[in-house]
Write a structure and sequence with these properties.
It is a multi-pass membrane protein. The chain is mostly helical and 279 residues long. The chain is built from 15 helices and two strands. Strand 1 and strand 2 form a beta hairpin.
Length: 279
């Protein structure tokens, strides 16, 4: 029995190690490629480090310009986009989820499930209609057009918060109403403080989505004053070929903020994954 337990545990660790290697290998390739020169990229195996390594790609990335703007400007655009989008998602999603979970009005459930059904439609399908709408109202290549499809909430976020609100005891709300609290007071003073785990989950998911968003920013933006870092990295691929060393340096710089967030909020991220699975 003991030998079987040892063998099963050894197989389990072997599977976990193989999974970890497969997961981390693309990130390792990004780092190794960013530390190579163009000749080393073609002469050294992709999974081997260059000797000696070089930081020239990072120097070119921060000292040079992509089109007519610096890479730091793209990073700043992405930070601004992520912060505003996350704040908008938290505010509007919370209000909508509370209405669907606690307020009573005609057609509430039908409206909720109809809105939730939009999750079945791939985002790619709605890109062209969204672009045509933005063109009609003059929001092409503007911050309003960039944020409009996401800032007012998402079906998944509203579903997550609604399910969490529905799980809170109704006695808390009844007691608050007896004390004279209104709907807004109940939401802000009772439900929101109790919903920190769900709000943490939504914050993490929205931050990662906003930071990695590529297709819609690529379609809606054309000027350098509204481009995000993902589109900026793609701009390094020109008509004469791609500068893979520079692209990998930019990709690694774009990954650093998310790595820092993961290291600082490991427990919150794990808790959010557990909460997402339970809900």
């Amino acid at each position: 029995m003991r030998s079987r337990r040892i063998v099963s545990r050894a197989l389990l660790y072997l599977v976990l190690i193989v999974g970890a290697v497969l997961t981390l290998f693309p990130y390792l390739m990004v780092v190794l490629t960013s530390l190579k020169t163009a000749p080393q990229l073609n002469s050294v195996s992709p999974w081997l480090p260059a000797v000696p390594g070089t930081l020239s790609n990072y120097i070119r990335l921060f000292n040079g310009k992509i089109a007519d703007i610096s890479f730091l400007a793209y990073l700043w655009h992405t930070v601004l986009f992520t912060v505003i989008l996350t704040a908008g998602q938290l505010v509007f999603t919370t209000f909508a989820a509370y209405a669907f979970a606690r307020l009573r009005f005609v057609g509430r459930d039908v409206l909720f499930w109809a809105y939730l059904a939009t999750m079945m439609v791939p985002n790619v399908v709605t890109m062209i209609p969204l672009y045509l709408i933005m063109r009609q109202i003059g929001w092409i290549d503007t911050w309003f057009g960039l944020m409009a499809p996401y800032i007012l909430g998402s079906p998944y976020g509203i579903f997550l918060m609604r399910q969490f609100f529905r799980g809170l005891p109704a006695d808390l709300e009844d007691a608050a109403r007896i004390d004279g609290a209104g709907t807004l007071t109940i939401l802000l003073r009772i439900f929101v403080p109790l919903s920190r785990p769900a709000l943490g989950t939504l914050t993490i998911l929205t931050t990662v989505f906003a930071w990695h968003n590529f297709l819609w920013p690529l379609i809606i933006t054309s000027g350098d004053n509204t481009k995000l870092v993902t589109v900026g990295i793609a701009s390094l691929q020109g008509n004469l070929g791609a500068d893979y060393n520079l692209m990998m340096a930019g990709s690694f710089v774009a990954l650093v903020p998310l790595i820092v967030i993961f290291l600082l909020f490991q427990r919150t991220i794990v808790r959010s994954i557990v909460l997402t699975g339970m809900k």
